[in-house]
Write a structure and sequence with these properties.
This protein is an alpha+beta fold and 109 residues long. The chain has two helices and six strands; from the N terminus they run H-E-H-E-E-E-E-E. The longest helix is centred in the N-terminal third of the chain and has 20 residues.
């Protein structure tokens, strides 16, 4: 049986995975990036055990097409979640890692 801390860490991974897999590919522009950040944050904050969520889209990576928008890529997302599972708290992040050229998820504490 998993400990409360292991369950809290699992929940953090679920939330970060949801951010990545539900929103990558979303249409986004410099004009709509802030509202997409808010939508992601509010969506994830509805899930169980979430204490807080922050989401930032790296606008410097945004490449708009001839129609005036681009697609959200995983490497453009920086997210932080704080989980409280029955008193056990963990923080985890999703952030682009330049060394591996990949968006990585990790526990902070």
């Amino acid at each position: 049986m998993p400990t409360k801390r292991e369950t809290a860490a699992f929940e953090a991974g679920i939330k970060l995975g949801a951010i990545y897999h539900q929103f990558v590919g979303s249409p986004v522009s410099a004009h709509t990036a802030e509202s997409l950040e808010t939508a992601i944050k509010e969506s994830i904050s509805l899930q169980p055990h979430v204490r807080s969520v922050s989401v930032e889209i790296d606008r410097d990576m945004l490449r708009e097409n001839v129609f005036g928008y681009g697609e959200l890529a995983g490497k453009m997302i920086r997210a932080l979640v704080e989980i409280d599972y029955d008193g056990e708290k963990v923080r985890a992040k999703l952030e682009y890692d330049q060394k591996t050229d990949y968006p990585l998820m990790s526990l902070l504490d």
